Amino acid sequence: MLVLSRKPNETIKIGDNIELRIIEVKGDNVKIGIEAPKSVDILRGELVQSISDTNAEAITLDLNLFNQLMKKDGSL
Amino acid sequence: MTIQTKFHGEIPTEELTNWTFPNGLPGLEDEKQFVILPIEGNDIFQVLQSVNNSNVALIVSNPYTLINDYSFEIDEPTIDLLEIKSPEDVMVLAVMSLKQPFESSTINLQAPLIFNINNQKAKQMIMNDATYQLRQPIGQPIVKGAR
């Protein structure tokens, strides 16, 4: 992993069209401004991780539970 | 051509729509081709089955049958990836986590599945804000009929 030191208001360019700017550093909190093309997904890492976890949980469904679904009819 | 499925055995794919998830799904990045299979005797839920991996099958549901006032904006990266041109292009499904007992099941409303019905491209779109939960307990109306 590349590690760079930056001060508030300094930037990091990634490729031609992504720029990160350190807005503010306060205690253990860092505010980062991100400029990127509209087509780029920008998401908090832990959020993506929890969606991954939910998907992993969703595919563990066993046959028993699935068979219950078949009996539920449209009457849910 | 036939595929192996988790719940339906081996099935022919000719009649089925093959959905392409260019990015896979979070945590399932390698799975890019899926079909949607009905569940016999159940109009509410369907199976999102990976074409290449029979073990990867998720129960999905039309979120609007469970939550009437579900409403959100489709973000630019999703519109761009799926080449969505109008709201009529779009179908929305949500991933279920089914549990025993059934009432403790949840629906992921923070990361809905967005489908473009015109080009069969799809994506699980993650909402950055916390308006909707990723483990939303399924509501009272469902619990009532589920027993």
TrEMBL record, chain A:
InterPro entries: CsrA (IPR003751), CsrA_sf (IPR036107). It is found in: Cytoplasm. SUPFAM superfamilies: CsrA-like (SSF117130). Keywords: Bacterial flagellum biogenesis, Cytoplasm, Repressor, RNA-binding, Translation regulation. It holds the Pfam family CsrA. The keyword Cytoplasm applies. It comes from the Bacteria. PANTHER family: CARBON STORAGE REGULATOR. Belongs to the CsrA/RsmA family. A translational regulator that binds mRNA to regulate translation initiation and/or mRNA stability. Usually binds in the 5'-UTR at or near the Shine-Dalgarno sequence preventing ribosome-binding, thus repressing translation. Its main target seems to be the major flagellin gene, while its function is anatagonized by FliW. Homodimer; the beta-strands of each monomer intercalate to form a hydrophobic core, while the alpha-helices form wings that extend away from the core. This is Translational regulator CsrA. The gene is csrA.
Automatic annotation (TrEMBL), chain B:
It is found in: Cytoplasm. InterPro entries: Flagellar_assembly_factor_FliW (IPR003775), Flagellar_assmbl_FliW_dom_sf (IPR024046). Its main location: cytoplasm. SUPFAM superfamilies: BH3618-like (SSF141457). Keywords: Bacterial flagellum biogenesis, Cell projection, Chaperone, Cilium, Cytoplasm, Flagellum, Translation regulation. PANTHER family: FLAGELLAR ASSEMBLY FACTOR FLIW (PTHR39190:SF1). Belongs to the FliW family. Interacts with translational regulator CsrA and flagellin(s). Acts as an anti-CsrA protein, binds CsrA and prevents it from repressing translation of its target genes, one of which is flagellin. Binds to flagellin and participates in the assembly of the flagellum. This is Flagellar assembly factor FliW. It comes from Sporosarcina aquimarina. The gene is fliW.
